[in-house]
Amino acid sequence: MEDQQQVILQRTGRLLTVTLNDPRRRNALGTALFDSLERALDAVTASAGDEQPSVVVLAANGSAFCSGFDLEACVHDTALLPTLVDRLGRLTAQIRALPAVVVAQVQGAALAGGCALVMSCDIVHASADATFGYPVHRIGVSPAVNLPVLLATAGLGAARRIALSGEIISANCAASLGMVHRIHADERTLHEEVAALAQSLCAKGPHALRATKAWLNRVDGTDSSGALGSAAARAAQATIAVCSTSHSRSMLESFWQQRRSRP
Amino acid sequence: MSERASLTIADGCATILLRRAEARNALDCDTIDALRQCIDAAATECDSKRGTVRTLVLAGEGKSFCAGMDLKGVLHDAARMGDMLRGLSSALLALRRLPVPTIARVQGAAIGGGCGLAVVCDFAITHPEAKLGYPEVDLGVCPAVVAPWLVRRIGAGPARSMLLTGGTMSGDEAAARGLVTSCVAAADLDAEVAALTARLSTGGAEALACTKRMLNELDGSLDERIAVEAAELSARVIAGPEAQTSLSRLFASKPQGGPAVPPPR
Prior knowledge:
heterodimer, A: 2-enoyl-CoA Hydratase, Chain A, domain 1, B: 10 helices
């Protein structure tokens, strides 16, 4: 079925660009996309010395950065959703722990699992049209799996608002909450500015960058032994428990029916 | 008290003045020691004359508030480097613990550890042309000592972006990003500081002290372990080949010595 690469990897010196490449499905997170992302990040973690990238840019092709889980696949395979939640929890933890600075380059929608990916990155640049949020309660899913990282990034008040309301917020609003660090007028400027940032990061001492990232994880509690890091596993379990119920399943199915019948 | 820093108290306002203008108040061992003595003396004054000292202003003599850590003299001396970073980390904690509201008067530059001093204060006032920021990673240095304070000031997400990106920013941008609490025309800097100290002095001294103590407890400011770990980590990274090479190159290009400030991006 895979007629194209789900993820495109491009290596230039110390920079690794990881581009989600399923624009037709708005880069929805399914099994194949997770497989590719995990492989790419595993390779970063396993590499050493000059082989190890010091900067990773996480980008996406198409009009949306990532619209969340592949719900169509979840409707067809009842066991899939809990698996995807588990994999999302691991993937976001892996991004946070990665010994490289991770920059998110976001255009269009970064919702639910897509927003979770962005929140686990170190630096977030977005185009003015980008949107963020966790509109998942309507399908009977909880965003709890991403709460520890969201909390560390946006602070208590903002995390509570975003996670409970399920509202989709603009790039400007996300910036005011500390979730986005730079906004660019259009996609072209976004690409240029992220390229310039990546270049400037690559010129810095990789050891200092790694040490600083690890220290920030320690300070904000998102390292594996920190309060938020150790809460992540519990959060994933709680999320899995919620989305495994029959009520959640029927909500997902009716949501999908409505979407399909939409003109 | 050493000449590198002074403490004066007038009209209920204590002022700590960094006095190393010839090096833009860069923090070497002596300056950090002098600053620490002033902070401790201010704490004693606050305790002994309860309610009479109402605010503390931290300022720097000359053109710049503080250009950062002066690593030149200790670059190859790991033991003294460690002492210096521990000294700074512990001075920042002592400054935070003062029971009165503290205000940094930031003119010219507040870079690296100097920016750290401004951010530890409860308030920081600067002017649009000032240069602030944390260019540590640009030099292969880890801003571990200042990181926890920046996280407490602007939040973990924005702090992460700022520290990993490095570089410096204008006073305007520093205000927009929450690094300082206000930015006024350079000519109005003293008036703004005076207005704020006057305003803070009208509140109940015990109430302000209690509020500050509570905020310090809630945001983790009193975590001594983090402060100690930060100094150790920072010293370790500076002792590594990456920082040694880049700092040696920087000092060789600036034979006059002075602080480690990279060119603006």
